[in-house]
């Protein structure tokens, strides 16, 4: 029996298994990094949307004054639509609450 052939075959199998394990590990790591990057970019986007909504609500208060709730809501929607943002009413109401609570109204 040629033991060198058996040893060579075992080395080849070991290299193939090692390569497969390294590839699988790399894929797992890449997937986790992708998730972290997406989470981070989502947080940045949400922060920017919140800031833009706060700014639009403040502008609506400044331009339209008190007692014009629906007009201010439409004004805020128009400003945000111009920036490519479509928040729901709850986002705008939260910004109004923050502004009112801080004494901005």
Write up this protein.
This protein has one domain (3-101). It contains three helices and no strands. It has helices at 3-64, 69-82, 89-101. Helix 1 crosses helix 2 and helix 1 (3-64) packs across helix 3 (89-101). The longest helix has 62 residues, at 3-64. It is rod-shaped, with a radius of gyration of 29 Å.
Q: What's the gyration radius in Å?
A: 29 Å
What's the story with the biggest beta sheet? none
Output the structural class: mainly alpha
Q: What does the average pLDDT come to?
A: 91
Number of strands: 0
Helix fraction?
over 70%
Overall number of structural domains: 1
Distance between the termini: 92 Å
Q: Can you count the helices?
A: 3
- Globally, the shape reads rod-shaped
Proportion in β-strands: under 5%
Identify low-pLDDT runs.
none
Order of helices and strands: HHH
